[in-house]
Specification:
about 375 residues; Rossmann fold; two-stranded antiparallel sheet; about 10% strand; disordered C terminus
Length: about 375
């Protein structure tokens, strides 16, 4: 068992807590090894290469104020803030900002985390991230550049192929499913409240009355009726259908997720109401725990388990923020065996290859990766 991380000369997890956490980790490893689980990668997986969430929010706020000095919105209410930011910037500047923030970085196409996650025997790979680090890692493993799916503008056959690939003994292209959009596909991006409502087909705050009450009052235009369908959650766009299916019928493993996305939690609520997932053992989430957030983390883990059937495996961390990377490396060693990780750092130009390196392969991989840009 890994030696506990020390913070102010005290271990984060007690011996009993560490033993219980290790038991859950053993079950997680067995689930991944079964080949039946689905990866869902969040922003924490791309930390260190792309801005973490608080920094991204700050960058967006500063960017809007640079173009509109009078802009003054509360960033703590992020869904509304993002809507106002998009309105202030206009579509072109808004999407250009996202593009510039999350486009591939030649100095690091992907990290060890992405490399290991792509090699683990997950049934499918999904993400809420806009970047293509998972795709870049997949290219080096499969040498197939056709490995992204973000719904908008896609042939419906690709979505069918993804769903079919979840069945046993089906051989299809392994793709990364972007649930919240991809940096270079404007209308796929989900960031503000209006985008969430449009793509998910519901709003966070359902009205206290019913749709029937609204209809009874009469004089509702077709446009207003469509708005009400979303407000009361009667619309089912493809993302909502797909996410409900995954949460209800499959077993998900969350990495780099804070589990505080209000629309995502609402989707878990829908599944809970439909299927009574209370205290089940269906999904797993890998969560950061520190000396400072320990009690909150335990309380949150209990809620996830009691309400949604999500079991938590903690990784201990400190102010270095390298706990997730260490956890994934340990997981990779236990599942794949100790081996040199495939790396996405720096080896991107022929002249940078060592005399003993494979120059032809390096150039080929770089050219494939550029197609994602």
């Amino acid at each position: 068992m890994p030696r506990p991380i020390m913070f102010n000369d005290e271990p984060i997890l007690s011996p009993t807590e560490s033993t219980e956490n290790q038991k859950r980790k053993t079950k997680l490893i067995a689930l991944i090894n079964s080949g039946d689980s689905i990866l869902m990668a969040g922003a924490g997986c791309s930390g260190g290469v792309y801005p973490p969430w608080p920094e991204f929010v700050d960058l967006l706020d500063k960017y809007v104020k640079r173009h509109n000095p009078d802009f003054n919105e509360d960033t703590s209410n992020f869904l509304s803030f993002a809507d106002k930011a998009k309105e202030s910037l206009g579509d072109d500047r808004y999407y250009n900002f996202i593009y510039q923030q999350f486009r591939p970085k030649e100095e690091q196409l992907f990290s060890d985390i992405h490399s290991i996650l792509c090699q683990l025997p997950f049934k499918a790979l999904t993400t809420t991230n806009y970047d293509v680090m998972l795709e870049s890692a997949l290219i080096t493993i499969t040498r197939n550049p056709d490995n992204s799916l973000c719904f908008e503008g896609e042939n419906k056959v690709k979505i069918y192929e993804f769903l079919a690939s979840l069945n046993p003994n089906v051989n299809t292209t392994r793709r990364v499913i972007h649930l919240h959009g991809k940096y270079d596909v404007n209308n796929s991006i989900i960031l503000g409240g209006k985008e969430y409502s449009s793509k998910y087909g519901f709003t966070i705050n359902t009205p206290v009355d019913s749709l029937y009450d609204q209809i009874q009052e009469g004089h509702i235009s077709k446009e207003k009726f469509q708005e009400l369908l979303v407000s009361y959650g009667y619309e089912w766009p493809i993302r909502r259908k797909l996410l409900w299916t995954l949460l209800a019928a499959r077993r998900i493993v969350f990495f780099g997720f804070s589990m505080n996305d209000p629309y995502f939690i609402k989707m878990l609520d829908f599944v809970k109401e439909d299927l009574s997932t209370y205290e089940a053992e269906t999904h797993y989430v890998v969560l950061r725990i520190t000396q400072n957030n320990k009690q909150r983390a335990f309380d949150f883990a209990r809620r996830l388990k009691n309400d949604y059937g999500i079991e938590t495996v903690f990784f201990e961390d400190d102010e270095k923020f390298d706990g997730l990377e260490k956890f994934v490396q340990e997981l990779g060693n236990e599942i794949l065996g100790a081996q040199e990780p495939i790396t996405g750092v720096a080896v991107v130009k022929a002249e940078q290859v060592s005399p003993d390196g494979d120059e032809e392969l390096t150039n080929e991989l770089f050219e494939l990766t550029k197609k994602l840009d």
